[in-house]
Amino acid sequence: EGRRFAAAVLNHSELGASRSTFDLYLSLLAEGLFEGGGQRRGAPWMHLYSIAVKKPEWASEVLGLLLRRAVQTVASLGISNAFSVNVGILNDDQLDDQVIQRAYQAAPIAFFHETWQSIVAIVSANLDNRAEGGPPYRDEIWRFRDPQFNHRIHDKLLSGVEAGIRALAVADFDSFCAIAGEVVALHAATIECLLVQGYAVAAQSHPDE
């Protein structure tokens, strides 16, 4: 009951005012205490917008938490699409553009680290590795993605990951290579496209790698 009261108070608080307030918010959000039912089901986008305006780098932490919750939820439901309405955690919203863009533009590497493992898990769970023609294999979420038409939240998130992986490849090429080595065996087209982006942007800084 005390946790619900705290959530009710935070509903009307400035979430970017202090780190301690924000950490409490994250803890309560992880428990699903800010999610409503019916039409309000899903991510608390007004909260995210408020955080992204004042502390855009903190918005990456919220998005990362929500992605991890979505991955855990699909596993418990026995489905694979973490963005499904049946999951009800990361839904499309008129505010998602501003939140996601502010987050990855302000702190692209932080955005990458918060979201990368979940994106890999989602790709893996939706990989069509029985397709004719062999690898690289496409996945059901980003199979038809066109970067020029990022209308859905999963496409917007992937654009943020793309910006993050480019920034990481330039700033810390060794870490980028280690991450690439962990996922290359997936032979996933979406992941390989992201890695190519990283290698391409780092090429001038690391011509011999």
3D structure, described in words:
The protein is mainly α. Helices cover 60% and strands 0% of the residues. It has helices spanning 2-10, 19-30, 45-54, 56-77, 96-106, 108-125, 153-171, 173-183, 189-202. The longest helix is centred in the first third of the chain and has 22 residues, at 56-77.
Give the count of helical stretches. 9
Mean pLDDT: 88
The structure class reads mainly alpha
Rg on CA atoms, Å:
18 Å
How many strands appear in the DSSP assignment? Answer: 0
Q: Give the topology string: H per helix, E per strand.
A: HHHHHHHHH
Principal-axes shape call: globular
Helix content class: 55-70%
What multimeric state do the chains show? Answer: single chain
Main sheet, how many strands, which sense, barrel?
Answer: none
Q: Low-confidence spans: pLDDT under 50, at least 5 residues?
A: none
How far apart are the first and last residues' alpha carbons, in Å? 56 Å
Strand content bin? under 5%
Task: Annotate the secondary structure layout.
Elements lengths: L1 H9 L8 H12 L14 H10 L1 H22 L18 H11 L1 H18 L27 H19 L1 H11 L5 H14 L7
